[in-house]
Amino acid sequence: MARPLRITYPGAFYHVTARGNERKAVFRSTRDREKFLEYLATASQRYDAVVHAYCLMDNHYHLLLQTPAANLPQIMRHINGAYTTYFNVKRTRCGHLFQGRYKAILVDIDEYAKELSRYLHLNPVRAKLVPAPADYPWSSYRDYIGQRKAPDWLFRELILGYFGGNLSKAQKRYHDFVSTIAVDQAHVNPLDAVSGSTLLGSAAFISFVKESYLVGRAPDQNLPALKQLADRLSIPDICAEVEHAFTGQPQLARGIELYLCQKYTRMKLKEIGVYFGIGESGVCKAGRRVEKRMKSDRRLNKKIEALEKRITK
Question: 235-311 falls under which CATH superfamily?
Answer without folding.
Answer: DnaA protein, C-terminal DNA-binding domain (1.10.1750.10)
